[in-house]
Design a protein that fits this description.
- The chain is globular.
- 38% of the residues lie in helices and 20% in strands.
- It is built from 6 helices and 5 strands; from the N terminus they run βαβαββαααβα.
- A 5-stranded mixed beta sheet has the order 2-1-3-5-4.
């Protein structure tokens, strides 16, 4: 049986570094990887609707948790609620949404879920271009995702 895979980019396409997840998803969408791609503009329950029915999912979102801009961090849903830096970021809303999905629809939510956060430098400038450090991180995350789905392996982020 074939694994059904998804890359989900989250962000605001009009805000500088908040569009990092969208940028990753757009690059994956133009690749020849055999994965579905979703772009979501918020972290509400729509996220769960998009993830249900998939076996292997990678979510990419920008974050502002205090690391140097462009830092790539992979977190679990549980870490979102226990790491002080993540609790004070908007990642906690994503974590809450996912937790509800797994509580209500455990058989429909992905068996493998990776949440990749890219540390933003500037969330507030209206532009369709990310800062240089975030752009470099985007390229690394695209490579990591490509490796993951090409070989079926979990690849290191650094």
């Amino acid at each position: 049986m074939k694994t059904k895979s998804l890359v989900c980019g989250i962000g605001n396409p009009m805000l500088k570094d908040d569009r990092a997840g969208i940028e990753v998803a757009e690059r994956i969408e133009t690749s020849d990887l055999d994965v579905d791609v979703e772009i979501i503009y918020g972290v509400g329950f729509e996220v769960n609707d998009k993830l249900m029915g998939y076996d292997d999912v990678i979510i990419i979102d920008a974050a502002k948790v205090g690391y140097p801009p462009g830092t790539i961090t992979e977190v679990t849903i549980d870490q979102i609620f226990t790491d002080h830096n993540l609790v004070t970021s908007h990642a906690v809303t994503l974590g809450s949404t996912l937790k509800v999905g797994y509580d209500l629809f455990p058989d429909e939510m992905p068996k493998k879920l990776r949440i990749v956060l890219i540390e933003a430098e500037d969330y507030f400038e209206f532009t369709k271009e990310c800062s240089p450090k975030v752009m470099a991180a985007i390229a690394k995350v695209v490579d990591m995702i490509t490796e993951h789905f090409s070989r079926g392996e979990v690849c290191p982020l650094h």
